[in-house]
Structure prediction request, 133 residues.
Amino acid sequence: MYIRKDNIILKTIRENKKHKKIYIPSKHAVTRWTNILNEEIFNNKIHPFKDIEIRRRHGCHAEHIGWESGPFVYGELSMNNWFWNKSEFIYTIAHEMIHQWQWMNFHKTNHGRTFMKWKDKLRKFDIPLGVEV
Prediction:
C-alpha cells in the first residue's frame, strides 16, 4: 500500500507531532477526522459514533462505550477536551475507531490481537498504536 506524501493524514501528523500547541477538539473536528480516517484506513467500514461527548477526562484521552439495542450495535465516544497537539488528537481517534470496529464485529473491545492487527496499517500513516496514546 503506497501512501502519497501529500495525504491529509500524513501531512497533518507530520506538521503537528513535534509541536506542543494545545489542540481543543470540537464535535465537528471529531466527525471530520473520523470520516477521513474511515475512508483512508478503514475502507469506510466503521459505523459513525452515535454520540460524541467532549469533556475533561481524568486518566485517559478518550473512551469508547459500546451499546446494543435489539439487533443493533452502536458506539459512543467520550473525548478529552484538550490534547497536547493535533497529532495526539488524531492518534486518539484512530485508537477509538479500532474499538468501534471491534465492537461492531465481536461485541467486545480490548487491546489484544484484534486491536493490534491494525498496528502495521496505522504505522504507514505515522500513527503509533498502543494501549495508551
DSSP finds five helices and three strands in the chain.
